[in-house]
Structures are given as structure tokens and as C-alpha cells.
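FW: tagging you since you asked about this chain on Friday. Here's the raw sequence from the shared folder, copied in full. Didn't touch anything.
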Amino acid sequence: MQDQFIIGAHQSFDKGFSGLFKYSEEINSNTFQFFMRNPRGSKSKKFDPEDAQRLLQLMEENNFKVFLVHAPYTLNPSSDKEYVREFALEVMKDDLNKMEYFPGNLYNFHPGNHLGKGTDIAIDEISQLLNNSLFEGMKSTVLLETMSGKGTEVGSRFEEIKKIMDGVHLNEYLGVCLDTCHVYSVGYDIVEDLDGVLKEFDEIIGLEKLLALHLNDSMTPKGSKKDRHAKIGEGHIGLEAFERIINHEKLRHLPFFLETPNDNAGHGEEIKLLKSLRHDL
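HL: got it, structure written out here
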């Protein structure tokens, strides 16, 4: 049986939960990603349980399998400021409680920045955030996103992600979202050696923990440690590499989310392009 090609883009939450489905329908996608609150602030979007239920109905009626909620960029459990660390805990606990309305879906976050205190200390603090946020029986899965390695970011190397996960008691509720731009920018050669990168991921973390991919081309070359997303096929990763990624036997069953610098119509064109590259569709 063929794997379903699960692909979508980051969507605006301006029209609520059911609006997310409408935006996705416009671009012929079958999944989506969104922020449940201001991505660069603290204010949470209004949560309407009836609208949330309507979204679940639309997803079931239209064979949508899974979506991803992205935590705000301001979440940093390893900040040098106590109020920022407290904010990270407050946000994650609140968001994960709301995720209970959406069984089986995904919540993704950037692990954080150590701001000079060192990676090992930051890893402990990120693990502690998760220990204080995850709970037995929760219905969603929390993903740590692979980062580009800029500044004092934590989580750019697979070993760092693994250490964070090892420090979490309820490890079964954790997974990884691999960002193609980020891993390429930090130095993983997904263009010339995708099999080697996946083998390394499997040996360190385990491919069973890889649950989603952010599909982004990179404005900067391999090893640049920059976080500069480009449209698919218009960066240093290139279209041929994305064709290999979306068709790879160890990846093709996963959900793919576009975060490229595009509007909704532009994302629709990218999805059309990627579908044309998907084998056996």
C-alpha cells in the first residue's frame, strides 16, 4: 500500500481553527501548521472549543491525518532571566492542555538558547521544562526541532537533542521535527549524503522518534549556521535533493510542513511542484 503524501504549509490563525482548514483547502494540502499564540510575544489566541471540534470534523471528513502546532519563538527555558523561564513553563503547560482537544496531533518547539551559560546547563533546563510540562496519558506528542546552530542555540546537533530527551521522564511523549534548512546549515549534508545523515540520526536518536519534517530550502550554504529559509528549489539545497527527501523510504510516510518565505498562493505552487516530484502519486 502506498504511503499518503502528507504535505501542508504554515497557516494563519486569523480565522480560527476551522479557518485553518479553509486555508489548507485553498492550496490543495492535507495538513497544516500554525501558532496558537503570538509567535514573538505572549498573548494567546482565543480558544473556541466549538470551533476546535468543527476542525476535527473537517479533518475526519477530508482525510487529514495530523497537524502541527508551533510554540512561540520567545519560549526559552534556558534564559538568564527567571521571568522568561517561567513564561516558557506557563506557555507549554497551557498549550499542551489545549492540545488535549486534538488527540494524536503534534506540538513543536525550538529548544532554546543558553546565552553563554553553556550547552550542558541548557540541556538540563530544557529537560526540566519538559519534565514539568508533560503528563501521563497526554494525547499529543511534543517535538524538539533541529536547529541551525546560530549564536547560542541548543539542539543543532543530534547528540544535543538526544541528551535533552534522555533527561525527560515521560520520553514516550517526545519526538523530533527535522528542519531541512537548519540541518543543512549546521553541516549535515542532506544534499550529497541523505542516507548517511539518516543513519547518523538513527544511531544517535532513533528514526522511530522522527515524526515530522519542515521542508525549507536554504539561502546560505552548508555549514553556514544561519537560519535563512528559501523557497523550495531556490536555495543551496535544491530541487533534486527535495525530490530525494520526499520519496525516501524512511521519510515518505511522515508529514511535511512548508515554512518557506511565501504567501498562501505561493505555498500552493510549491505543494503542486512537490506533488509532481512524488513517485507513485
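FW: The chain has a mean pLDDT of 96.
HL: agreed, and The beta strands are 7-10, 31-35, 68-70, 106-109, 141-145, 174-179, 210-215, 217-218, 229-230, 256-258.
FW: great, closing this out.
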